Amino acid sequence: MKYNIINWVKENKLIIILFLISTSFFIYQHHTNLSWDFSSYVLNAEYWFQNGNYFEPLRPPLMPFIIGIFSFLGSRTAEFIFIILTSLLLFYSSIKLAKSLNFNETAFYAISLNFYLLGKGLINGTELLSLAFLELFVAFLIQNKSISGLFLGLSAVSRYTALVLFPLIILHLKIKKVVKSLIIFTIPILIWLIYNYYKFGNLFTSIADQYANNILFREYLRQQIKLIDFIFTINILIPFLITGIIVSIYYITKKIKENNKLLQKIESLKVEIIFFILLIFSLYNYINTPIKDARYLFTILLPAFYFSYLALDFIVNKLNKKELLVKAALIIFTISIILLLIPTPLTIRESTSHYYSAIEKIEELNLTHCSIKTNSWVFINYISDKSTSPLPRYEIVNKTIKEKHILVMFKNVGEPEYIKNITFINSLPIIYNNSDYHIIGENNCIKEAKFEESYLEQTQKALIETRNITINIDPCFILFSKNKLPEKACNLINLNGFKTSENRESAI
Questions:
Q1: What is the pLDDT of residues 474-498, one digit of tens each?
Q2: How far is it, in rounded angstroms, from Cα 257 to Cα 288?
């Protein structure tokens, strides 16, 4: 066994070096960055495993669960263990997928270490984790192994976008394997749904919360498709992606002619079908999300890697220089590394000194026991042991102050809009003010409390207080209000009867 491992390391020195370089970058990146989403997942882990005071129901559970497992070593150490394990998972999944596709493992992994994947894969926490599990799902689906469903399920509890990919399981093409894979797919998801029911009274609370936050209640902010997002995400692989798609279509036409029976055609085209569906799904997911951001295109990287490899392989074969494949892939990897050295939104570090300064000032003013509301609540919760919550809406700022809450407003944060209104801010009881933040409130205050409200609960509470409107925040209504049959089925599953909600009031 020892001899085999040593032998494997000797034979795969190049791919191991790529792993070490990429993992080192991920570690450095996390050490030098403060990420809102990553911090939220860490806070959820602390809530579960260390009796933490802050919890966001809309976050999928797998990342905080992994961090929580290692939290006995300290939260900060657990974060770096998560990063190393996720990078290792990508390393393994890339090799596994390459083998199932009969691709050169080193070349495919080198192409996969794309500029955007390196820059964005772990900055927010879950993108790379979900993608690596998706790679394993595709690898085992190609090999026609039912265990594929488990990895799709794990991808889905890393990022909910993978949930809608379950129809791909049908490509096992054998009823027993399809059923088995679907059952396995539901296991990690069902565990999370049961927790939701136990904690919030509805199986779909977390999923509905994220859907409302990212899509349903953001419709009024719908943006146009931005070409720059595609350039930013796929970057150096764009010409290879386009060439690979053309090459793939050429292969598809040949395979269609070679097989007469429909089932045989589907079987021979399984790989192409999978990656074209992933490509279309990625584009649809981005287009369907109101606020356009390159991160919503992250899943497109997987078909981009596949088609780019096809293009590279096609070119070197045409040149009759197969030995150039790995070298060309390494050049692409090197360009990705160079791109990371150029100042971009992925590499520019935002100063965090004002957060630490505010925490010190809160301690100095003897306000540490107070209920604090701030527009950087996640960062303050993450950096300190405080339990802070979001700032109130403009209409109830004075009411919130009278209720003895302390408000900390960071000037570098663009929201809420009223922090830019100098006249309004000066009309409030300012305890402390500097160039970075305001601390506002009365001399005495109420004590802090755990914050575990869902996004839907926060929205409903704000609308009641500002407009006297009571919207329906039931997850079944949020997810299925446009179609009464699924809404009724959802209520039935949640033991609320086969019926629709009486209150049809929505925030949109």
A1: 999 999 988 889 999 999 999 999 8
A2: 36
**420 and 297 assigned to the same domain:** no
Strand-strand pairing, 389-390 and 406-410: unpaired
Q: Give yes or no for a contact between 476 and 490, defined as CB atoms under 8 angstroms apart.
A: yes
Token couple for 307? 């088609």
Model confidence over 430-453: pLDDT tens digits?
A: 999 998 899 999 878 888 888 888
Distance CA 18, CA 26 (A): 12
Residue 421: domain span: 353-440
pLDDT of 347: 55
Residues 326 and 435 in one domain: no
| 167 DSSP 8-state letter | G
What is the average pLDDT across 5-19?
Answer: 82
Q: What is the pLDDT of residue 176?
A: 94
Per-residue buried b or exposed e for 168-199, using 16+ beta carbons within 10 Å of the residue's own CB? bbebbeeeebbebbbebbbebbeebbeebeee
Same-domain status, 336 and 393: no
Element (DSSP H or E) covering residue 405: none
Q: What does the DSSP 8-state code read for residue 370?
A: B
412: Cβ–Cβ under 8 A, 6 or more apart, which residues? 354, 436
What pLDDT, in 10s, does the model give residues 261-307?
A: 777 778 878 999 999 999 999 999 999 888 888 889 999 999 999 99
pTM of the model: 0.92
Can you read off the two tokens belonging to residue 357?
């300064």
For 176, how many CA atoms within 13 A lie in the half-sphere containing its CB?
1
Q: Which amino acid is at 18?
A: L
Query: Apex CA 127: angle with CA 122 and CA 129, to 5°?
Result: 85
Query: Are the beta carbons of 320 and 5 closer than 8 angstroms?
Result: no
In a domain, 81, yes or no: yes
Query: Which string of b and e fits 244-266 if b means at least 16 CB within 10 Å?
Result: bbebbeeebeeeeeeeeeeeebe
Q: Show which of 290, 312, 340 is a domain's final residue.
A: 340
d(CA 265, CA 260) in angstroms, rounded, equals 7
328 and 375 co-located in one domain? no
Radius of gyration of the chain (CA): 25
Q: How far is CA 497 from the centre of its chain?
A: 34
Residue 382 and residue 246 share a domain: no
108 and 25 housed in the same domain = yes
